[in-house]
Amino acid sequence: MTGFEHARAVADAVLYEGYLLYPYRRSSGKNRVRWQFGVLVPPAWAREHGLDDTGVAGSAEAAWQRTECLIEARPDTVVHFRVRFLQLQRKGVEKRLPGGRHEPVDSLDAGERAEFSFDEAVPQEFDLQFRLGDVLRDEERFTVHVPGGEEAEPVLDEAGGAAGRVVRRRWPLTASVTVSAERCDAARPLDRIRVRIDNAGTGTPGSASRDEALRCSLLACHVLLRTDGGAFVSLLDPPEWARRAAGECANVHVFPVLAGPEGERHTVLSSPILLYDHPRVAPESPGDLHDATEIDEILSLRTLTLTDAEKREARGTDARAAAILDRTESMPREVFSRLHGAIRSREPVPGAASGRVVVAGVDVGRGSRVRLRPRTRGTDPQDRFLDGRTARVEAVLTDVDDAAHLAVTVEDDPAAELNQWYGRFRYFAPDEVEPLTARDAAGEAP
User: Fold this and answer.
1) For residue 152, what is the enclosing H or E element?
2) Of 118, 121, 164, 161, which Cα lies nearest the Cα of 313?
3) pLDDT value at position 29?
4) Is 196:64 a contact under the CB 8 Å cutoff?
């Protein structure tokens, strides 16, 4: 199905958010509690554990989720939609015994290659469609089924002999998708589309452990909708005539946003992670690091500092972890420099025309010398260690709220020249600096 290409990168980031967190090793404590967004558990297990929350938070486990969004379209308009989720796959490691038998082990060392037992996941997606007029008259139901399976992969030792094998096992999944629509009370023709996804699995009892329930759960479940014959309406910033209808949309464990290019209204991404309209992955990003709470530059640099033993464990933990390591280790210098970030806007700051700002009656701009006086509260604690140090202003910038910030390099920093070359600066508000006077410049103590 075409039309989802622009939204797919963001949807993939949603799919793998938290899949495997830095340092990408099984032994890391935070990688032992996974699958935290958009988890649709088996219904019997949900009932047994009282999982009946109907809020929008996608971090709440439940047996179902519901998307409600608004569309302006004719009854004969066709809406395509794609249901996406991860299917858990258990990776087990077995050691080969004399006689050809195998026994399960926690890990297997085969020289250059190491393998660790771990839970992986397989992406699943299903393309469906409906005609708006049909679901206005009556709901339509679709069944999604994913079979289980098992595959074995041999692990060879350095001499080429059989050291053991990796066995990957998946459990079958069944989901029910129900689509309906209703006419809204609005000044212009407007319809509300409702897409409900239920885990319809019946093989997991309520007494099962969470690990057992996850085997038959839809993980990171979300839906994409697309039409070329109409236009969706933003629920975050609806036009005045649609504001009431937007407020009446009841989304459960997901929230839909416009997902096409800025200004386009043909695609919606309904995600268990709250997003803004028209989200996108930063163009500087070289690839998914599965940890959107961090910055690509920091994660990449940290990954490079892992020891050889830690990297070996990460590679033996998961193929996606191995791919992150390979990509980071081969990343060209110019790609690293782009990861530091980009200024999306250089709109003038009130009182800071031409890259300058008045501080304590003194005109400050690039090349000015200042003394740093960071706030005692509401700032980065690390900045407190710079109190009283002198710095050189490299630029006066503005943020999305039109607040001015001074980009500076600390003058006695041994890495000052390198930071200038990379464009790595420290940032302070105008009220956190004191312009240096002539007496300061002459070397008098502050």
Assistant:
1) strand 149-156
2) 118
3) 66
4) yes
CB-based contacts of 400, cutoff 8 Å, min separation 6:
345
CA atoms within 13 Å, Cβ hemisphere of 319: 7
* Entry field: residues in the chain: 446
d(CA 40, CA 38): 6
How far apart are the C-alpha atoms of 22 and 26, rounded to whole Å?
A: 10
Q: Give CA separation, 390 vs 25, 375, 433, in Å.
A: 42, 16, 9
Confidence of residue 78 (pLDDT cuts 50, 70, 90): very high
Contact of 271 with 254, CB cutoff 8 Å: yes
Question: Does residue 348 have a pLDDT over 50?
Answer: no
pLDDT digits (tens, 9 = 90+) for 411-422: 988 777 877 776
Structure tokens at 420: 């200038």
Euclidean distance between CA atoms 201 and 215, whole angstroms: 11
| Residue owning tokens 């390591």 | 325
Number of helices (H) and strands (E) in the chain: give both, helices first.
11, 22
Distance CA 191, CA 185 (A): 9
DSSP 110-136: ETTEEEE-EEEEEEEEEEEEEEHHHHH
pLDDT band of 294, cuts 50, 70, 90: low
Instruction: Please give the CATH topology (third level) of the domain spanning 353-441.
Output: SH3 type barrels. (2.30.30)
- Those residues with Cβ within 8 angstroms of residue 92's Cβ, 6 or more apart along the chain or in another chain: 104, 117, 166, 167, 168, 169
Contact 102, 239 (CB under 8 A): no
Using pLDDT thresholds of 50, 70 and 90, give the confidence band for residue 322.
confident
Q: What is the DSSP string of 24-73?
A: --TTSGGGSS---SS-B--HHHHHHTT----SS-TTS-BSEEEEEEEEEE
Supply the pTM of this predicted model. 0.72
Cis peptide before 446 (omega within 30 of 0): no
Distance between CA atoms of residues 305 and 300, nearest Å: 9
Closest CA relative to residue 299, chosen from 291, 307, 311, 308: 291
Longest dimension (CA), the chain: 87
Domain ranges of the chain: 5-329, 353-441
AA identity, residue 303: T
| Better-predicted residue by pLDDT, 282 or 112 | 112
